[in-house]
Design goal:
The chain is α/β, with parallel strands linked by helices and 579 residues long. The protein has helices spanning 33-51, 63-78, 84-89, 99-108, 114-118, 122-134, 147-160, 164-169, 171-179, 185-211, 227-231, 254-273, 289-297, 307-318, 350-359, 365-382, 409-421, 430-439, 469-491, 496-509, 513-517, 524-544; strands spanning 8-16, 57-61, 215-218, 279-280, 302-305, 334-338, 341-347, 389-396, 425-428, 447-448.
C-alpha cells in the first residue's frame, strides 16, 4: 500500500573501471583484469537490467576501460592476441610450455575468492590441492604438473571467471563444467571464442539499454586522474590540514592536463554512445571547487562524490559547529555554483553503499534485500517535508560480486525486482533526478552548497592517494617525468605521431590507481604488481621521449604488507573509517 508521504527516489549508480594494463611499447597486457571482469561482471550487470524491465540505474564507464574492451575485440578479430593468459588458452601444444609460461599459469590461475570461485568446483579444487602438495618442492614440481594439468587449470580459471548469467545460458560452459578435466585444444578454442563474443557484445548491450531509457551511462575524465590533485596539491589540506605533500609544490601544467582528460572523455563517449555524457563520476569521487568548475565549463550537468565530502562542505559553507542528523541533509542533491554555471552534485549514502560492497555478501539474498528495502523505507518514512527524498547508492560495480554466492545473481535479481515493484520507491537515473529538479522544483529536494571541501568518496579526503611518504614519492616521480615531457615538447623535436604517443603514455601515468595501491594497508602481492606497472609506465614515458630512464625507477616505491587482509583484497574500500 502506498503511503501518504512523498516517494523516495533511489539513484543507484554503478562505477565500472580498470586502469590501462597494457605496456604501450610492446602492446602486451601485463595483467588480465579487464577481460576477466568483462566476462564475469560487465556481462552479469547488463543481464540483470535486461531481465528487469522496470529497473533503472546509472552506469559509469571510464573511457580507458572502454579503450581496452575495444582493444580486446580487435585482438580476437585480428588473431593477434597480446594478453599472455589468452595466448596460453589458445596455445596448440601444451606439452612444450616454457618455464616462464608454466610459472605464469600457476601464479595467475588461482587468483580469485577461494570460497566462492574455486571451492564450489570439485575439479578446480582438485587442481589446487595438487599444487599445494607440490609447491613446497619448488621448480621440481613441474616434473609432476603435466601440460594437461596446465590446460585444465587454464580452462577452470576462465570458467570460474564467467558470469552466472553466462553459465546459465551457455551450453558450452555447462558442457565444459560437466566434463571437468582432460580439456582438449578444441575445448580451449571454443572457450576462447565464447570470451571473444562476450566482450564484443558488451558496449552494444549497454548502449541498447540506454537507448531504451533503462539506464544512463556517464563518464569519467579519460584516464581516471584525480582532478583536484592535478589542479592543486594543496587541496589535500581541506580535509587533512597537516598532511605532508610531495616535494613538488604543484603538478606542472595540471590545469591543461585536467582539461585534456575531460575533453578526451567527452570525445570518447560521443564516439561510442552517440552523444555527450550529461554527468561524470570524477575519478574516486575526487572533487574541489576548481575541479567542479572545470567540469561545468565543459557542459557537465552533474557530478557525484562521497558523503564525507558533503559533511565537510557543509561545515565549510555554513561555519557549522555541529551538523544536524544525516537524514536532514544527505538525501538530496545540491546545486554548486561554479563561475557562470551551476553543477548539481549527488552525495553517496556511505551506509547503504557499503552494505552492498561489504556486508550483504555474507547474508542470504532474501535477508540482504529485505534489509536494504527496510532501510530505504525508514528513510522515506522519516522524511517530514513535502518533497521527495533522493538516496544515492554509489559503488564499484565489478569487484564486490566475487564475494557473493553465484556472483551476486540472486541478490541483484531480487533487489531489482523488489525495488521496481515498491509503491513508495522509484528507481531513477542521475539525469532523471536533475530533470525532475528543473521541471518540478517544488517536489524534489535540492540544496544549495556555497562551498565545496575538496575530497573523495573515501573518508571525504585524499588520504588514499597522497599524504604518506610512498604516495608522495609516486607523485614526485610523476612530476619529474612531466617536467621532462614539457622540456622535450618545448624543444619541438618530436614528430606528430611521437608527441601523440608520449602524451598518451603520460595520461596513463596520471591515473589514480597507482597511488591507490601504495601503502602498507594493502597486500604486498598486489602492491608489488601495481608498483612495477607504474614504474614500467613511467620508464616507457622516458623511452618514448628518447631520454634515459632515471635509476630511481628501478627501486620499489611501496612494499605493502604481508599482514594486510582486507575483506576485498584492496580492490574496494569503505566510505567511512568508522563504518
Amino acid at each position: 500500500m502506498t503511503s501518504s508521504r512523498p516517494k523516495l527516489y533511489l539513484n543507484l549508480y554503478w562505477h565500472m573501471h580498470q586502469p590501462d594494463y597494457r605496456d604501450t611499447i610492446t602492446g602486451e597486457y601485463v595483467l588480465p583484469w579487464t577481460y576477466l571482469h568483462a566476462i564475469k561482471d560487465y556481462t552479469d550487470m547488463a543481464f540483470h537490467l535486461e531481465s528487469n524491465p522496470q529497473a533503472r540505474a546509472t552506469f559509469n564507464f571510464v573511457p580507458v576501460l572502454l579503450d581496452q574492451l575495444e582493444d580486446y575485440v580487435e585482438q580476437f578479430d585480428s588473431g593477434n592476441i597480446r594478453d599472455p593468459l589468452l595466448v596460453l588458452l589458445n596455445k596448440e601444444d601444451m606439452k612444450i610450455l616454457t618455464l616462464d609460461e608454466r610459472c605464469l599459469i600457476l601464479e595467475s590461475c588461482f587468483k580469485g575468492h577461494h570460497e566462492k570461485m574455486l571451492a564450489p568446483f570439485e575439479h578446480y579444487q582438485c587442481l589446487y590441492n595438487m599444487y599445494c602438495k607440490l609447491e613446497p618442492h619448488g621448480k621440481s614440481m613441474f616434473n609432476y604438473l603435466s601440460g594437461q594439468y596446465m590446460a585444465d587449470l587454464l580452462v577452470w580459471y576462465h570458467l570460474a571467471w564467467t558470469g552466472e548469467s553466462v553459465r546459465r545460458s551457455s551450453q558450452l560452459v555447462q558442457d565444459l563444467m560437466a566434463k571437468g578435466s582432460q580439456f582438449t585444444l578444441e575445448d580451449r578454442l571454443a572457450l576462447s571464442e565464447l570470451i571473444a563474443g562476450l566482450i564484443r557484445d558488451l558496449i552494444p548491450r549497454y548502449k541498447q539499454l540506454e537507448t531504451e531509457g533503462r539506464i544512463e551511462i556517464s563518464s569519467t575524465p579519460h584516464y581516471h586522474p584525480i582532478l583536484p590533485l592535478l589542479l592543486d596539491f594543496r587541496s589535500t589540506r581541506d580535509a587533512m590540514p597537516y598532511a605532508p605533500l610531495p616535494h613538488f609544490s604543484h603538478y606542472p601544467g595540471g590545469k591543461l592536463r585536467a582539461r585534456a582528460h575531460i575533453e578526451e572523455a567527452q570525445a570518447s563517449h560521443t564516439r561510442r554512445f552517440g552523444k555527450l555524457p550529461q554527468g561524470m563520476w570524477p575519478a574516486e569521487g575526487g572533487v574541489s571547487h576548481e575541479g567542479l568548475s572545470l567540469m561545468a565549463e565543459h557542459g557537465i550537468q552533474w557530478a557525484a562524490t562521497g558523503e564525507g565530502v558533503l559533511a565537510n562542505s557543509l561545515y565549510k559553507s555554513f561555519d557549522s559547529v555541529e551538523l544536524p542528523p544525516r537524514n536532514e541533509y544527505l538525501y538530496q542533491p545540491y546545486r554548486v555554483t561554479s563561475g557562470q554555471q551551476d553543477i548539481i552534485c549527488f552525495f553517496r549514502d556511505d551506509h547503504l553503499s557499503d552494505k552492498i560492497g561489504f556486508e550483504y555478501s555474507n547474508l542470504h539474498a532474501d535477508n540482504a534485500v529485505a534489509d536494504f528495502i527496510h532501510t530505504l523505507e525508514g528513510i522515506q518514512q522519516a522524511n517530514s517535508s513535502e518533497r521527495h527524498a533522493v538516496v544515492s547508492v554509489i559503488l564499484d560495480g565489478e569487484n564486490a560480486w566475487e564475494y557473493y554466492p553465484y556472483n551476486g545473481y540472486y541478490f541483484l535479481n531480487q533487489l531489482y525486482q523488489a525495488l521496481s515493484q515498491h509503491p513508495d520507491i522509484e528507481m531513477t537515473t542521475c539525469s532523471q533526478v536533475v530533470e525532475k529538479c528543473k521541471q518540478h522544483p517544488s517536489s524534489v529536494a535540492l540544496g544549495n552548497l556555497p562551498a565545496i571541501a575538496a575530497g573523495s568518496w573515501v573518508y571525504g579526503s585524499f588520504s588514499t592517494w597522497i599524504g604518506s611518504s610512498d604516495k608522495n614519492k609516486g607523485w614526485d616521480l610523476l612530476c619529474e617525468a612531466k617536467r621532462a615531457y614539457d622540456g622535450v615538447v618545448h624543444a619541438g623535436k618530436l614528430s606528430k605521431e611521437e608527441l601523440a604517443a608520449c602524451t598518451h603514455q603520460l595520461a596513463i601515468c596520471e591515473g589514480s590507481d597507482w597511488f591507490w595501491w601504495f601503502g602498507d594497508y594493502n597486500s604486498s602481492l598486489s602492491v608489488t604488481s601495481f608498483d612495477r606497472l607504474y614504474r614500467r609506465n613511467l620508464g616507457n614515458l622516458y623511452r618514448l621521449l628518447k631520454l634515459p630512464v632515471p635509476s630511481a625507477l628501478s627501486q620499489a616505491i611501496s612494499a605493502g604488507s604481508t599482514d594486510a587482509s582486507s575483506a576485498n583484497a584492496g580492490t574496494m574500500r569503505r566510505g567511512q573509517e568508522s563504518a
